[in-house]
Amino acid sequence: MIPRHLVFILIIVFLASLAGASLGASWSNRWLVVASALVFSATASIVAFVINRQNWRGVPDSGTKRVVLHALVAATNLSAFVYAWGAAALFLVYTTSGLYWQHGWQYGLAMALVAAGMAQYARLLEQCHPDLTSENAIERSVMLAIAHGIAVSLVLLWLVASGKILTPRADWAANLIFVAGGLSIVCLCAFLTKTHHELTRARDSSR
Fold it and tell me: pLDDT tens-digit profile of 170-185?
């Protein structure tokens, strides 16, 4: 669950970041694109930290599943928000800035579909769908989040090592968007993993 005031902040930063990225791409100003993308990435990561840190002291055994479920819902919603931002940024940059990259709409569409899928999954979790909210199902979801974070980390390492973020080609803006969004996803997965670890450890030690 994401508190309303944090959702409001996210939406404001979301819109401001998109505007900055579009202007930066239009002016071929990489630093403006970087700054705009990282502002959103940092905001989403900070929101995730604020939501999760209160759970890192552990809870009574009876509340472990409920709190982990709430953390999973929040992480999924935030991840959907990040992917939606990435999709919107790609569509906006490659339709309004004068930059042309033939794969921009493809990656944008893929990220939009991922965002929609995550939003739907979060909605089913909030509705306590029995097939998704059992203890085993939640454990599997956390494991998938860990795998997600590792996979995105590897992609980020590849982007940096390959020099793609410095490329003179038109996909330079997309690569910066990928890096900023990827950093946020890694943080979200890491915070959820720590929450799950701290809560299950507290539960096991109380038995």
Answer: 889 999 999 999 999 9
